[in-house]
Design goal:
By secondary structure, this protein is an alpha/beta fold. The protein has ten helices and ten strands. It folds into two domains: about 140 residues, 3-Layer(aba) Sandwich (D-Maltodextrin-Binding Protein, domain 2), CATH 3.40.190.10; about 100 residues, Periplasmic binding protein-like II (D-Maltodextrin-Binding Protein, domain 2).
């Protein structure tokens, strides 16, 4: 019943957003990998309710920012907040940005493997030192922070021989056994059946990445793009965001 109520609210919101629209449009959305599972569920709901189409392109936020700088066309960008702020300063997106969700970093292992203790910062530090291999996505939002965290914990040099900078998702690397421990946004761990979330980083070393959305300054379907963003930020979509390992807003 709860699911039906959420769906009804989502459909009702979408219809009200697009009231008066005559011709359907297709918008291109460049989005961080961290929000991939959220958008893969909400995108089709928006399409069904409005008749518009949404084409997604997913990649690490920094990679998408580079593509935009190189002239990539798009209608909506959903990237880490600092990058959307930068795009707004450069005049490449609308100055109005909407925060969609935020997520913390989690620890992933292969499903069924012995779970390391990460309940405290000291335990997390020891788990990193005891692991045979530790990986995170080189271009991911959490990568720069993890490097500074390892330095802060005094283990950067000891981790170097077993640290893997991944080109693909860290959750996938843990799932297929490429690394013993994968570190990434929690929302990028849950989609992999053979990956298991040990838990989030200890609270005193946790960091949250915020993802915000804005319409391209050059979009020809800005109204549809704005409606899509409003759809993602509405209360009816928050249940989906939560189930995907993120927090709304």
């Amino acid at each position: 019943m709860k699911t039906q109520c959420v769906m009804a609210a989502i459909v009702g919101l979408a219809l009200s957003l697009m009231a008066g629209q005559v011709q359907a449009a297709e918008i291109k959305v460049l989005a961080s990998t961290a929000v991939k599972t959220v958008l893969e569920e909400l995108g089709p709901q928006f399409e069904k309710a409005t008749g518009n189409k949404v084409a997604f392109a997913f990649a690490p936020a920094s990679v998408l920012k580079t593509k935009i700088d190189q002239g990539e066309t798009f209608d909506v960008a959903i990237l880490t907040a600092p990058l959307t702020d930068k795009l707004a300063e450069e005049g490449k997106i609308d100055t109005t940005r909407t925060t969609i969700a935020h997520a913390g970093i989690g620890v992933a292992i292969h499903k069924g493997a012995l779970k390391p203790d990460i309940s405290t910062t000291g335990a997390f530090r020891l788990a990193m030192l005891n692991a045979k291999s530790v990986g995170f996505t080189a271009g991911g939002a959490s990568g720069a922070y993890l490097k500074t965290l390892f330095e802060k914990l005094g283990i950067a040099d000891e981790l170097k021989p077993k640290l893997k900078l991944l080109q693909g998702p860290a959750g996938e690397a843990a799932a297929n056994g490429e690394v013993e421990i994968g570190l990434t946004q929690i929302s990028e761990i849950l989609p992999y059946a053979n990956a298991e979330l040990v838990g989030p980083l200890p609270s005193d070393v946790q960091i949250y990445t915020y993802f915000s959305a804005a319409v391209s300054a050059a979009s020809k379907d800005a109204d549809v793009g704005k409606a899509f963003i409003k759809f993602l930020a509405a209360p009816a979509a928050q249940a989906v965001i939560t189930t995907k390992g993120m927090d709304p807003g």
